[in-house]
Write a structure and sequence with these properties.
The complex is a heterodimer of chains A (533) and B (257).
Chain A lengths: L1 H7 L13 H4 L4 H30 L9 H36 L7 H20 L25 H29 L12 H32 L13 H18 L2 H15 L6 H14 L15 H13 L1 H15 L8 H24 L1 H7 L3 H31 L5 H27 L14 H26 L37 H7 L2
Helix pairs in contact in A: 3-4, 3-5, 3-17, 4-6, 4-15, 5-6, 6-7, 7-8, 7-9, 7-10, 9-12, 9-13, 9-15, 10-12, 12-13, 13-15, 13-16, 15-16, 16-17
Chain B lengths: L20 H34 L15 H29 L7 E8 L2 E6 L4 E5 L3 H6 L22 E4 L4 E7 L4 E5 L4 E5 L5 E5 L5 E6 L12 E7 L1 H12 L10
Parallel strand pairs in B: 1-5, 4-10
Antiparallel strand pairs in B: 1-2, 2-3, 5-8, 6-7, 9-10
């Protein structure tokens, strides 16, 4: 008996990771799972990026050179699904897994086994999705928006598309539940909600958005499935259904989804800018309120994606005004970041460079967003390259730059070594130049009337398409430098526990690299932060 | 590569002003918001750039310690709200006009097909399909060996254009036979989805004669990029002659080509 009691009281602090593949397959450790999410995301980023390069190669000059139109449509569809669900979202979940427990002083995520499951669903989901490339009828080619009736013309890939979307949704919902339960229950005893770091706050809001809208997407695609195979007519006009209803349901999911992809980015940037400005985040509480307002508004603006479907005038007005309102809290966030820099003592390490580019370029995406909100102008912009330019500005130099900023920022904490700053800066400058070369000309293409999702175009669009294609290839190649930095990350000089001079927060109180188990005893957040003053 | 002798649209940076009152209003809305964005951008980026140069550690500055200012936050919440209201009012006025398709001079039913358009003139008893013109059709194939730059209006030309009179209020009734398409002509500032089971409305009153080109704007399958729209606006007398010629059983090729 006494030995059993002794076993129960055995301390687990010294237990390192399991050996071999089992460490990863059966992991319940938030750090290992975070790493797996990030590696998975990077893999998908390259697969989705390769598809983008197929698209840009075909569009480099007029005429069809490389692919047939149907395959081109598969590429745009798969590129979007993989980047949204496979690259951006898992990257943020990876950052959440690694950093939320470290930032709030928790020993792990609240539901570690579910954490393992929500990760391991993803490779299965994307394995299924990618396998459709080899199926009769080809991969889904109806756009990631899956509008019926077109999506019902998908070949054998159709049920696999639906099933993989279901799996992605299940994974996201479980990840979101985990984040919420962790944040609500496992904060350091003296960390009240309004004392939480911004990254934790934005993720809490994001997690609620995920739980609210992923089931809506699941419902929408399930209705597609039953329309296709079980004789229902949810979206089929011939059976009394309504194709536009799908668009309403899809965008009820889809608009919050775009904030799911940007709110954690706001959080990352709100951590980094104060650190390298050596100054506290300006207006912490108003940042929380702004993020919450954006989240609330995200539920009542969905039909601004649908100004051309023929809505009643009052409906259009409502969605237009509500959409314009989003500019207010978004403006507050941008002004607060600028105010944080103001009279700081800035240095420009790679994470800061990516964050500054984020503020600049996300704002440009915000401006085009404001233009898109005006319904009459949107009728001209809708479904043209202007929209493509807009959402790539908020997603690439927006979300993805924030992810990269976060990776550079926390990498020394993960590996215990400084990454190579020269290579990091090279990666930053090349990425920034090429991302603008790729996406800025698309504004002009859209205004001149080039629709999106076309494999070939009229010759007046040639020049800007060629520029965009050159930019895209440059951007793709620049990301190899990122891989180079990551692969050589363990070689740099030893990182301090508090890696960056101006950083605050519990994550900098643990050693670098962060030990396998941290915060087995809850820390006192106040004391930790006072030590940094 | 020679461009001599080919008729192609000019390279453009901005949205066309178009040829209807509402397309000009739309253009003005676009430019108004654009200039607001430029003004806001100059201020925000200006402050940021000044800060990036002056507030650096390498300049030996000591960081300030302020972390909020209620006054500043109220100001930069209130000012955007005022700007948005200034934007919203003229935009709403234009929206009301866009939706007012009452009392048209003529109506045309536009039906989207995979992958062509069908036009039916309600009162004139004229109807025809409009598909990608043959020179583009030959050149668009992969490995066609035809340089698109040598094709007139590559991918923006049709066998039979939509012909309408200048100065008439034309109402379009849009629907689809299969999947969702979208009828898009930038110079008319019209982009309206054609949806199976639903009839949408749009209208225009063209002020200038000429040929105006657009194409399907909603992904509709493999040949989505190959269903152009050509609208020929002609003088009312010429239009009347065109209608009469069609009624006499003239060949199904429209207009002056």
């Amino acid at each position: 008996m006494s030995t059993t009691v002794a076993d129960l009281h055995d301390h687990h602090d010294d237990h390192g990771p399991a050996k071999g593949i089992g460490r990863w397959l059966f992991s319940t450790n938030h750090k290992d799972i975070g790493t797996m999410y990030l590696v998975f995301s990077l893999t998908m980023f390259f697969i989705g990026g390769a598809m983008a390069l197929v698209i840009r190669s075909e569009l480099a000059i007029p005429g069809l050179q490389f692919v047939h139109p149907e395959f081109f449509n598969s590429m745009t569809t798969m590129h979007a699904l993989i980047m949204v669900f496979g690259a951006v979202m898992p990257a943020f979940v990876g950052l959440a897994n690694w950093m939320i427990p470290l930032m709030i002083g928790a020993p792990d995520m609240a539901l570690p086994r579910m954490n393992n499951w929500s990760f391991w669903i993803l490779p299965v989901a994307f394995g299924i999705l990618l396998s459709t490339l080899f199926m009769p009828g080809g991969a889904p080619a109806s756009g990631w928006t899956m509008y019926p009736p077109l999506v019902l013309q998908t070949g054998n890939a159709f049920p696999f598309l639906i099933f993989s979307v279901h799996l992605m949704g299940i994974s996201s919902i479980m990840g979101a539940i985990n984040v919420i339960v962790t944040i609500i229950n496992m904060r350091a005893p003296d960390m009240s909600l309004l004392k939480m770091p911004m990254f934790v706050w934005t993720w809490l809001i994001t997690a609620y958005l995920l739980i609210a809208v992923m089931p809506v997407l699941a419902g929408a695609v399930t209705m597609l499935l039953t329309d296709q195979f079980f004789g229902t007519s949810f979206f089929l006009a011939a059976g009394g259904g309504d194709p536009v209803m799908f668009q309403h349901i899809f965008w009820f999911f889809g608009h919050p989804e775009v904030y799911i992809m940007i709110l954690p980015a706001f959080g990352v940037v709100s951590e980094i800018i104060p650190t390298f400005s050596r100054k506290k985040l300006f207006g912490h509480d108003s940042m929380v309120y702004a993020a919450s307002s954006i989240a609330f508004l995200s539920f009542i603006v969905w039909a601004h994606h649908m100004f051309t479907v023929g809505m009643p005038l009052t409906g259009q007005m409502f969605f237009m005004f509500a959409t314009m309102l989003i500019a207010v809290p978004t403006g507050v966030k941008i002004f607060n970041w600028v105010a944080t820099m103001w009279r700081g003592a800035m240095t420009f390490e790679t994470p800061m460079l990516f964050s500054l580019a984020f503020v600049f370029l996300f704002t440009i995406g915000g401006f085009s967003g404001l233009m898109l909100a005006a319904a009459p102008a949107d009728i001209q912009y809708h479904d043209t390259y202007f929209v493509v330019a807009h959402f790539h500005y908020v997603l690439v130099p927006g979300s993805i730059f924030a992810i990269m900023a976060g990776v550079y920022y926390w990498l020394p904490k993960w590996t215990g070594h400084m990454y190579n700053e020269t290579r990091g800066k090279l990666h930053f400058w090349l990425s920034t130049i090429f991302v603008n070369l790729t996406f800025f000309p698309m504004h002009f293409l859209g205004l001149a009337g080039m629709p999106r999702r076309i494999p070939d175009y009229s010759t007046q669009f040639t020049d800007f398409n060629t520029v965009a294609s050159i930019g895209a290839i440059g951007f793709g190649l620049s990301q190899l430098i990122f891989v180079w930095v990551l692969v050589t990350a363990y070689r740099g000089e030893k990182a301090l526990d508090r890696v960056w001079e101006g950083s605050h927060g519990l994550e900098w109180t643990v050693p670098s690299p962060a030990p396998y188990h941290t915060f087995e005893t809850p820390p006192i957040a106040r004391i930790a932060n006072e030590a940094f003053e | 590569m020679s461009f001599v002798g080919t008729a192609n649209a000019e390279w453009a940076l901005n949205m066309p002003r178009g040829i209807t009152d509402l397309s000009v209003e739309t253009y003005n809305i676009h430019m108004m918001i654009f200039w607001w964005c430029v003004a806001i951008g100059i201020i925000v980026f200006g402050v940021m750039i000044v800060s990036l140069f002056r507030h650096r550690k390498s300049q030996g500055v000591k960081p300030a310690t302020f972390s909020h200012s209620t006054t500043a936050e109220v100001i930069w919440t209130a000012i955007p709200i005022v700007i948005l209201m200034l934007i919203a009012i003229p935009v709403a006025e234009t929206m009301i006009k866009l939706e007012d398709s009452r009392d048209p001079d003529m109506s045309i039913v536009v039906t989207g097909y995979q992958w062509k358009w069908h036009y039916k003139y309600q009162d004139e008893g004229i109807d025809f399909y409009s598909s990608l013109a043959r020179p583009s059709l030959l050149a668009r194939r992969k490995e066609s060996g035809i340089d698109p730059n040598t094709v007139d209006n590559y991918l923006r030309d049709v066998d039979r254009p939509l012909v309408v009179p200048r100065g008439a209020k034309v109402r379009l009734l849009l629907t689809s036979n299969d999947v969702v398409h979208s009828w898009y002509v930038p110079e008319l500032a019209i982009k309206k989805d054609t949806i199976p089971g639903i009839i949408n409305e749009a209208w225009f009153n063209a002020k200038e004669v000429g040929t105006y080109r657009g194409q399907c704007a909603e992904l509709c399958g493999k040949d989505h990029g190959y269903m152009p729209i050509v609208v020929e606006v002609i003088e009312p007398e010429a239009y009347k002659a065109w209608v009469d010629a069609r009624k006499d059983g003239a060949p199904q090729v429209a207009s002056s080509k």
